[in-house]
Amino acid sequence: MEIKKTFCSYIAASIICSLYSMSVTGAETENIASPDFAFANTSLSYGDNGYQEDPLGMIRAFDGNPYTSWHPALREDSWLGQLFPEAMAVTGYSVKGNIEHFKIQASHDGIAWQTLDTQREQTISSQLTYFTIPEEKVGAYQYYRLYTIGDNYSANINMLELYGHRGESSGGVPEDVTMPQFASASSNAWVMTDTAFEYLPNLHTLAFDNISGGYNFSENTYWRPVSQNNEWLAQSFTRPQRIVSYTLEAPSQYMAPEHWLLQASIDGSTWLTLDERQNQELGKEKQSYEIAFEQQGSYPYYRLYFPSNVKPIGVSEVELLAAGATAAPVPQDDAVMVVIRDAFGDAPWYEEGSHGGFVMAIAQGHYNAELDVDESVEFRTSNINDDRRDSAPIDLSEEAFKADVINMSSSSTTYDAGKKAVKSLNDYYPQQPLKITSAGNASTVCTAEAAELGRQVGLSASALEAHFAGVPQSEWEHYYKACDMTVVAAIDAQQEESWIVVAGYMGDPYRPQKPLGILKDRGVVAPYKIDGRDGTSFSAPYVSALAAMILQRAPELTASEVAAIIFATADDLGEPGVDEVWGHGRVNPARAMQYMDEQGYGYP
């Protein structure tokens, strides 16, 4: 088939082609796993000198030979998986080997993982044992892995098979997934200013602002690149999207491109052409174009490439329309779910002696009589290790396919960690639940200068010491942990409406624990000391409990609406209105519940 040959000539030929040699659009009982797609975090082989590292050992679980096996180097925290070149919907799996406790997980990017199925105390050994993925958890993902749980002594996997099919469209109306903040371009664009023609950055975002604009310069909402040859306009998504069609609109027929290619990439450097149009006579009206089904796939990068055009070109509006199957299933029920991301250590989450357990107890309404969280509210955990608090990916240890509130009793000091957290949360929960994070226990202020320094080098002690080498500590210590860089990253991504940052209130309206600075618009304060323990780690779940109380009475409210209620009912402190010390003020559960009464919201 010619299309298959063209496809394979573009991207890592053998791997991509091996997927297309399978009839993945056929029966769901077909094994779609392949040695070409294998990955693992650890692998051993046994030789003359005993066990040793085996970088390619993971392929032995997918080679179809029941007598070869993958041996993990660790008794726990080991995984074995498949990275498909596009999103696949796995409906079941089979395992042969010596393993007792494990879970099957899926991901869009290999960072944020959803648990699809959990098995404990299995006696799998001599035969291939089949397991079904619950229907409500089947979604289209590129990454799948078997993750070992706890102690699996002398574990090995002879065979791991995944059964499913290529991720199909859900049958709904495809939606435009482009956003201005995802845009990039080959060159700046020119525009008429008050004085002259100028080439200005960021004008490529105008092609994704959903405003058609006009030909007159005063109505400019289009991208007009430096030349008409070898120019491109791109979108970089937070997770792979399967684009099924696109639209293109020019500012006028005099700047309409005649020749373009829609291309996609898995890495942003090697591009596959999905659709090419030549000798086009594009007018002012929006035109729609379909992508052949054989060419569709799930990619994080897309671009319109303009190789050669006779006249100067301009693009007023572009839409990339995605199939619905690339998103994880989102249950639409009234149960309120709160996810606690914390370090739970060796103690189970319900043991309040651990840091995470105490955070959980506060979010459940313990220790504070003014907090009344209904027993119907569900709680899930997301565990992180203390020594990786600033870099650990979000990886739920319990199934939580939806979330209404996510409590993060930790703060990031690096911009990369902040962006990773925002991206992971977007991938897990595209419905944008309310994220409540602690401001940190340092008394330093998040100024614009501190935030910019955090973007460049980070705000940890080691990063600042290296950056200010030779400078007295007294001259730079005011930057130390001044900003929660996760909130800064969310603001930069224009997603701040679903975030609240919480500083501590120590009982004195003239003695702030941590002035909020430029985070004031998303900030509140809450009790700093609870049951003899102090820290903003415990202030944040106090606010999460209040958010759960609001949602248990009105589960239809969005994250921004819940945040607005918390802000509006807070006790004003310091300067009237929102200020850089106290933000919106001290949260007041009684006033928030009074507001809910006034709005006619009942109790569960």
Task: For the structure shown, list the relevant keywords.
Jelly Rolls; Rossmann fold; 10 helices; 27 strands; protease; 7-stranded antiparallel sheet; signal; serine-type endopeptidase activity; F5/8 type C domain-containing protein; 17% helix; alpha+beta; Galactose-bd-like_sf
What would your notes on this structure say?
The protein is of the alpha+beta class. It has 3 domains: 2-166, Jelly Rolls; 175-326, Jelly Rolls, CATH 2.60.120; 337-441 and 482-598, Peptidase S8/S53 domain (Rossmann fold). 17% of the residues lie in helices and 28% in strands. The chain is built from 10 helices and 27 strands. It has helices at residues 2-8, 13-20, 355-363, 415-428, 448-456, 461-467, 485-492, 536-553, 559-568, 589-598; strands at residues 38-40, 44-47, 50-53, 79-98, 102-107, 113-119, 129-132, 140-148, 156-166, 175-176, 183-185, 189-192, 197-200, 229-249, 260-265, 272-277, 287-290, 298-308, 317-322, 337-342, 378-383, 405-408, 434-438, 499-505, 523-527, 529-530, 533-534. The strands form 6 sheets. Strands 10, 11, 14, 15, 16, 17, 18 and 19 form an 8-stranded antiparallel β-sheet that branches. Strands 1, 4, 5, 6, 7, 8 and 9 form a 7-stranded antiparallel β-sheet that branches. It has a 6-stranded parallel β-sheet with strand order 21-20-22-23-24-25. The chain is globular. The termini are far apart. 46% of the residues are buried. Residues 1-28, 214-218, 325-332, 346-350 and 385-399 have low confidence and may be disordered.
